[in-house]
């Protein structure tokens, strides 16, 4: 049986870690829109060249081009036993286009896994990073503190800073935008009986175990 999956989750929910597990266990390609855009542009495919024009102008690549690039990727031979989509669809229009694409290719989604994490936890996760000003070593307030407080493990420096996109207010804003985008998609896939929500507040191993149970039951 094929394993055609979509992985959803807010920034910091741990999608990357879980994607690695799914791809390794089920031997299916991880298809992230960022990667396929880069491959299409690097390979100078007609769609890659078209996408590059928008990127060069600092504009968003239109849905029509994005959907064609995704369709092109899903036609490739390595998706015959399934695929793991990540970062697409980003809105309802793209979700409806994906339905049409997968219908035509006879590669309809089998499940949508949504890793659900409390937004306050995500703010802590995402805004906890700080960097040594002297050598650039990165630390985290929760997960990777320096061995001696206030002293860099690598160079012994004492001055740390936080990147502007790691600051709590920036992180909160980013999450709000993502929640607004994700909510209609969650409703859409719930109505199609494809949605499986996993509690992402647990330890990584428990999240993996929960995802594994869902996927095992699909077979």
UniProtKB/TrEMBL annotation:
Positions annotated to bind ATP: 12-17, 129, 138-139, 202
Chief location bin: cytoplasm
Catalysed transformations (reactions): AMP + ATP = 2 ADP
Organism superkingdom: Bacteria
Ligand binding (AMP): 33, 38, 59-61, 87-90, 94, 163, 174
PROSITE patterns referenced in this protein's UniProt entry, alphabetically: ADENYLATE_KINASE
Pfam families linked: ADK, ADK_lid
Pathway linked to the protein: Purine metabolism; AMP biosynthesis via salvage pathway; AMP from ADP: step 1/1
Keywords, sorted A to Z: ATP-binding, Cytoplasm, Kinase, Metal-binding, Nucleotide biosynthesis, Nucleotide-binding, Transferase, Zinc
Region (NMP): 32-61
Localization annotation: Cytoplasm
Record: residues binding Zn(2+): 132, 135, 152, 155
GO cellular component, one term: cytoplasm
Gene Ontology terms: biological process: AMP salvage
Chain ranges of the Adenylate kinase active site lid domain: 129-165
InterPro entries per UniProt: Adenyl_kin_sub (IPR006259), Adenylat/UMP-CMP_kin (IPR000850), Adenylat_kinase_CS (IPR033690), Adenylate_kinase_lid-dom (IPR007862), P-loop_NTPase (IPR027417)
EC number: 2.7.4.3
Record-linked HAMAP family: Adenylate_kinase_Adk
Protein family membership: Belongs to the adenylate kinase family.
UniProt comment concerning the protein's domains: Consists of three domains, a large central CORE domain and two small peripheral domains, NMPbind and LID, which undergo movements during catalysis. The LID domain closes over the site of phosphoryl transfer upon ATP binding. Assembling and dissambling the active center during each catalytic cycle provides an effective means to prevent ATP hydrolysis. Some bacteria have evolved a zinc-coordinating structure that stabilizes the LID domain.
Subunit and interaction comment: Monomer.
Record's function text: Catalyzes the reversible transfer of the terminal phosphate group between ATP and AMP. Plays an important role in cellular energy homeostasis and in adenine nucleotide metabolism.
Protein name, entry field: Adenylate kinase
Native source species: Fructilactobacillus lindneri DSM 20690 = JCM 11027
